[in-house]
Amino acid sequence: MAERTQLTSISEDNFEQCLKCSICTVYCPVSAVTTAYPGPKQAGPDGERYRLKDPHYYDEALKLCLNCKRCEVACPSGVRVGDIIQKARMKHQGHGPKLRDMMLASTDLVGSMATLVAPIANFTVGLKPVKAVMHSVLGIDKHRTFPAYASTKFETWFRRHAQQEQGRFMRHVSYFHGCYVNYNYPQLGKDLVAVMNALGYGVHLLDKEKCCGVALIANGMYGQARRQAQTNIESMSTSVTRDRRPVITTSSTCTFTMRDEYEHVLGLDTAGVRDSLSLATRYIFNLIDEGKVRLAFRSDYKRHMAYHTACHMQRMGWAIYSIELLRLIPGLQLDVLESQCCGIAGTYGFKRENYETSQAIGSGLFAAVEQADPEVVVTDCETCKWQIEMSTGKRVMNPISVLAEALDLEATAALNK
Amino acid sequence: MRFHTVIVGGGLSGLVAGVTLARTGKRVAIVSSGQSSLHFNGGSLELLGALPDGTAVQRPLEAAASLPEEHPYAKIGVSRLPQLAADAAKLLATVGMPMQGDVSVNHYRLTPMGVAKPAWLTMGDYVTLERPDVLPWNNVLLVNVAGFMDFPVNFVAHGLREMGATVRVEELDVEPLAARRASATEMRAANLAKSLVSGSAVSRLASAINEVAGDNDEVVLMPAVLGLDDDHAVTMLRAQVSKPLHMVATLPPAVPGARLHTTLRHYFQMLGGTYLMGDTVQRGTFEGNRLTGVHTAKLADTVLQADNYVMAGGSFLSRGLMANYERVYEPVLDLDVTAPTDRAQWTRYGVFNQQPYMSFGVSVDRQFHALKGGEPLDNVYAVGSILGGHDPVKMGDGTGVAMLTALAVAQQIIDN
Ligand SMILES: Cc1cc2nc3c(=O)[nH]c(=O)nc-3n(C[C@H](O)[C@H](O)[C@H](O)COP(=O)(O)OP(=O)(O)OC[C@H]3O[C@@H](n4cnc5c(N)ncnc54)[C@H](O)[C@@H]3O)c2cc1C
Ligand code: SF4
Ligand code: SF4
Fold first, then answer.
1. Which residues of A touch B35 (CB under 8 A)?
2. B218 pLDDT exceeds 70?
């Protein structure tokens, strides 16, 4: 008997472990504000029992899931509720993506085109008539401001101004910069290079970097997501095995997507790279913790900031690294805000039909920001940055940029020679 | 990453230990796989409701003297219980959860099934009774939200009538709660509470209650669907309803327990404590009888190191204890567990009978050092429902054991 007894769960996503305790339903930001969504338990493990019997039980309302994974964080039984929902969408979703969804999802393609014509693109997407057309024809909400496109891509800047010097360092990392740094905000990439160089690390681009695919997954473009993921896994694998360079990032969402969604949702094998792929704040914290690097801070730095834990940061369990790193800065008064969803969830909040839900979800966070009244909100996620900047008027920074600002880079470089 | 104390499990016991230590300025981390069993709690804490043989307890501190030596209260020492119980009540008041109740004599709470059960402390807005069979009112208005199924209103009405009251039941069909009916699966206490935060929503509910309240009704009882984060909404509502108003616990997930959890966690974080939600401690490394570090699923190669470790992972439901067809075990450190090897002795026929597995748990010495291979570990303690020797369901002592063992251990760590 004992040989034939199943001693552990063998189901995907710990589906069988669901005890039906309903705790996840208390923490879903979507069902908190709208009745159109069936909630994590019903959309996830409960609905899955029916879908396994007959796909007709698939409910199109599952597209309202933000994929924030806050249900998974809350579940005491380790059920991957959000993954069950994403996979159900992948398997059963009726129609292909709309033009709008394809545009929002194709961050690489649209980004490349827009950088070429950045001043025009920034100008036109900001125009009222253009916004009106986007709102009514494309369904991109008119309240949204598109993040501005930079006129020079990060990669271009890096090749021109930074690449050559990287060889002089003893230790090296690769940097997965992501679309946002490349097309919209190269300054964050420059900050990362400055900080890592000061710590004595050379920074390198991957052989080939594609958009991580988070928006493709969210918008149902799974084939393309898988192709891009494979390219990234190969490039990262080359970096790790051939060049002996771990890969660091500055976006919590790209990191989460590549570490977890590639395997859990797209079914790809990431075993060779997963442990070597880390958010820069985590990488740097561990270097400090292990006594491998030392930091020297500017003595005149004085700021009041508030840290916002992005959903995927919460899911990865890594907010502690960014927070502990920021706490090292002597002149920084840091408030840690209650971890809650800002409502944007990547491209979700850009869609006209989601705008109100998106803002209602974020209202708790906006109120908390207002109450803390910091000079700057710090977060590891770029889409949270857009949402918080639009909704609270506060400036939002990535922890790496804060570090770049607070460090005495020359003194730090001297310490880590 | 270094801490003074790392606590494995962020339920009632882990949080109480965490708050107590963090208040003295210690650097404390709590790791919690998920939310805790407080989400099943209807707003009352219990010290001791019955003895192992089923005898009902009226005076818990006195009755504790007759508990068997394996019971956590006996390990703490009966003479220390009054002070610890007072400390527990004080701690709750400090974090912003003042409770009603007198430690020397049990009062009674009302369950969602309409049954009176012994309790030690109950949140201010909830029904408390002096006796299990008599109500302080003759005429009760029991209101429910139309379409809300986590409140079996007929059971509650029946229970109240058994206690001699005349009960009128009214259903409220009021916005914004009515709109919630569009999603039957999500029409739950916590979601209703999220719709009942603004002054206007609460006022609408208050007028709806006032409309159905008759001259004869002495009191209004309603399901606990307000106050998920704090007591503002409940206070507003009580001020606007024309009759005395009390909450009755709903089926889980329960608003009052979730609020107790959030309130304790906020306070812990406000003291500078680190709360890692959604991560699981998987294993530890030992040097002799000392635990030198623990590893979590998400922090991977970042080891959590501390002088002291408190195991507060709860019982089977929370996975502090686990069982398969072969054995009952503690999954993180493989601590000694009191359970017979013969599986037939784990359970007893009849689901409502006293079940042996309910009192399985991690073996500890008199200072709550956890045992491993028969030896107490120097710096590892166990608190809360991961402990054996008691049965929270049959003895009504779960939350009391969680708070008192956590306080006793935290105190001991501070004194060392
Ligand atoms: C369904 C139910 C109903 C109950 N009803 C009552 C009642 O009415 N009255 C009463 O007095 N008592 C009741 N109890 C008992 C009472 O809730 C508990 O005794 C008390 O709250 C236990 O608190 P705890 O902190 O010890 O454990 P829990 O509340 O179980 O918390 C343990 C926490 O540890 C986490 N955890 C476990 N393993 C790990 C790990 N390896 N790493 C990180 N985290 C981990 C879990 O996710 C969980 O959050 C009930 C219990 C249950 C399960
Ligand atoms: S998924 Fe987890 S939290 Fe949700 S009902 Fe199942 S066990 Fe409970
Ligand atoms: S992933 Fe987020 S939005 Fe989706 S069900 Fe879970 S909690 Fe709700």
1. 23, 26-27, 74-76
2. yes
- State the smallest CA–CA distance between residue A184 and chain B in angstroms: 30
For residue A1, the model assigns a pLDDT of: 46
When scoring A19, A35, A37, A338 by the number of chain B Cβ atoms within 10 A, the one with the most, hence best to mutate, is A35
What CATH number has the domain bearing residue B294?
Answer: 3.50.50.60
Residue A257: is its pLDDT beyond 60? Answer: yes
In this predicted structure, which of A113-117, A139-143, A200-204, A208-212 has the lowest mean pLDDT? A113-117
Question: Given the CA of residue A27, which atom of ligand 3 is nearest to it?
Answer: 7
Integer Cα distance of B266 and B174 in angstroms: 32
- Whether residues B147 and B211 share a domain: the answer is yes
Q: Rounded distance, CA A337 to CA A315, Å?
A: 16
- Give B258 to chain A, closest Cα distance, Å: 9
User: Is residue B321 over pLDDT 90?
Assistant: yes
Averaged over B371-396, what is the pLDDT?
A: 97
> Whole-number mean pLDDT of chain A?
90
Position A147 pLDDT exceeds 90: no
The CA distance from B368 to B376, in Å, is 9
pLDDT attached to residue B67? 97
8 Å CB contact between A197 and A413: yes
CA nearest A218: which of A94, A348, A306, A99? A348
- As for how many domains chain B has, the answer is 2
CB atoms A21 and B258 under 8 Å = no
Scored b (16 or more CB within 10 A) or e, B66-102 reads ebeebbbbbbbebeebeebbebbbebbeebebebebe
Q: What is the average per-residue pLDDT within A212-238?
A: 94
Measuring from atom 19 of ligand 1, which residue has the nearest CA?
B398
Q: Which residue of A has its CA nearest to B31?
A: A317
B272 touches chain A (CB under 8 A): no
Within 8 A of B33 by CB-CB distance, chain A residues are 76, 78
Report chain A residues whose CB lies below 8 A from the CB of B282.
none
Give the confidence band of B199 by pLDDT, cuts at 50, 70, 90: very high
The verdict on the CB of residue A214 being under 6 Å from ligand 3 is: no
Domain range for B306: 2-102+258-415
Closest ligand relative to B37 C-alpha: 1
How many angstroms separate the alpha carbon of residue A203 from the centre of ligand 1? 47
CATH number at residue B175: 3.40.50
State the pLDDT at residue A25. 94
Q: Which pTM does this prediction carry?
A: 0.94
Contact indicator for B18, B12 with CB cutoff of 8 Å: no
Give, in words, the CATH class of A303-406.
alpha beta
Q: Are both B287 and B354 inside the same structural domain?
A: yes
Q: Testing the interface with B: which of A6, A31, A322 to mutate, by most B Cβ within 10 A?
A: A31
pLDDT for residue A114: 56
Domain A2-92, classified CATH 1.10.1060.10, yes or no: yes
pLDDT score, position A95: 65
CB-neighbour burial class of residue A16 (10 A; exposed 0-12, middle 13-18, buried 19+): middle
